[in-house]
Write a structure and sequence with these properties.
It comes from Poecilia latipinna (sailfin molly). This protein has two domains: about 1-110, Immunoglobulins (Immunoglobulin-like, Sandwich); about 110-220, Immunoglobulin-like (Sandwich), CATH 2.60.40.10. The chain has one helix and 24 strands. The longest helix is centred in the last third of the chain and has 5 residues, at about 225-230. A hairpin with a 6-residue loop joins strand 13 and strand 14 (about 160-165). The chain is mainly beta. A six-stranded mixed β-sheet has the order 1-9-8-3-4-5, with no helix packed on it. Strands 11, 13, 14, 17, 18 and 19 form a six-stranded mixed β-sheet that branches. Strands 10-12-16-15 form a four-stranded antiparallel β-sheet, with no helix packed on it.
Length: about 290
C-alpha cells in the first residue's frame, strides 16, 4: 500500500522478467466496487525503445511512464482523493502467459481536530454542551465537507463506548484563510449522576479518523454537608448571641433539604432604667438543597 498526501506524486513499479522477447504491460486502475479501467499500455520490444499509449479517457498530463530493463514505472502527478484505489500491472507475453501485480493507493488530506482538554463541573439535571472543531484545507480536500462526527464516553476502568453520532451534519463552518476552513460540532445532553467521565469526539473523513483529547464532565452536588457545617454566622448587634440548629428532613421527591433555624437574641435597655428586658427571639429559616 502507498499512502500519500493530496498534491504529492506517487510511482508504481512493475517488475519485468530477466528474459523476454515481446511483452506488453497494461496499467489499470480499480476503484472499490468498480471494474478495471485501463490507464496506459506499454509496448516492450527487444532492441527497440519502449513506447506507450494512454487510454483516450485518461488525461496523460497527470501521468508519466518510464521503463528500463528491470521495471516499468507509472508515476501519478499531484494525487487527489479521486485517485484512491487499486493499481494493477498486467504483463502479457506473446506466448499467452499473463502475470498480475497490484498496489493500493490511499490519498489522505491534512486536517486537524481540536477538542478542549478541560474538566467541566456540572450539576445533575444541568445541560452540558461539548465542542469539537475541525480545521482543514478546503481546496486540497475534495471530500472535506463529508465529515462524520462520533461521540464516545469513557468511565473509569472501562473502554470508551459510542453514545452518539451526527453523521455528516455540522453546525457551522467559517473560513480561516483563502484555503482553510473550520467546522464546529456541538453535543448537548442533560447530565445525570452516571455521566461522570471523559467524553471524546471523533471525526471520520477521507478514509481517515481522528480522536479528540477528551473533555471530562465532573458531577458535583449542589452543596456538601461539610460546606454547610462551615456556614458560621457571627452576629454583632449589641450583645447578641447566635445559635445554629441544623436539622435534615426528607422530601417527597426523595431529595434531602437542610434547614438551619437561626435564633437571634436581642437585648434592649429601657429608658431611665438599669434593667434589661429580653425581646422575643426572632427565628429565620434558610433552605439549602443537598
Amino acid at each position: 500500500m502507498n499512502i500519500v498526501q493530496t498534491g504529492e506524486s506517487v510511482t508504481f513499479k512493475c517488475a519485468l522478467p530477466s528474459q523476454f522477447s515481446k511483452r506488453d504491460v497494461y496499467w489499470y486502475k480499480q476503484r472499490p466496487g468498480d471494474t478495471l479501467r485501463l490507464i496506459v499500455t506499454v509496448f516492450l520490444r527487444q532492441q527497440k525503445l519502449p513506447t506507450h499509449k494512454f487510454d483516450p479517457e485518461i488525461p496523460d498530463s497527470r501521468w508519466e511512464v518510464n521503463n528500463d530493463e528491470k521495471f516499468s514505472r507509472l508515476t501519478l502527478l499531484k494525487a487527489s482523493y479521486s485517485d484512491d484505489g487499486l493499481y494493477h500491472c498486467e504483463l502479457s507475453a506473446w506466448t499467452g502467459s499473463i502475470e498480475w501485480s497490484g498496489t493500493y493507493l490511499m490519498v489522505t488530506g491534512k486536517y486537524v481536530l481540536f477538542q478542549p482538554s478541560v474538566s467541566i463541573p456540572v450539576h445533575s439535571g444541568d445541560t452540558a454542551t461539548l465542542q469539537c472543531s475541525v480545521l482543514f484545507d478546503s481546496e486540497k480536500m475534495a471530500c472535506s465537507e463529508d465529515f462524520s462526527m462520533f461521540w464516545f464516553q469513557a468511565k473509569s476502568n472501562t473502554y470508551p463506548n459510542m453514545i452518539y453520532t451526527e453523521g455528516n451534519k455540522h453546525h457551522e463552518c467559517e473560513k480561516k484563510s483563502d484555503s482553510e476552513k473550520s467546522c464546529m460540532f456541538n453535543f448537548s445532553k442533560v447530565v445525570s449522576s452516571s455521566d461522570s467521565g471523559i467524553f471524546y469526539c471523533a471525526v471520520a473523513s477521507c478514509g481517515k479518523i481522528l480522536f479528540g483529547n477528551g473533555t471530562r464532565l465532573e458531577i458535583v452536588k449542589w452543596i456538601d454537608e461539610q460546606y454547610f457545617l462551615a456556614l458560621i454566622f457571627f452576629c454583632s448587634y449589641s450583645t447578641a448571641i447566635c445559635t445554629n440548629l441544623i436539622s435534615s428532613a426528607p422530601q417527597a421527591d426523595g431529595e434531602n433539604k437542610n434547614y438551619a433555624a437561626l435564633n437571634f437574641s436581642k437585648s434592649k435597655e429601657k429608658r431611665g432604667g438599669k434593667k434589661k428586658q429580653m425581646e422575643p427571639q426572632e427565628c429565620f429559616y434558610s433552605e439549602i438543597k443537598v
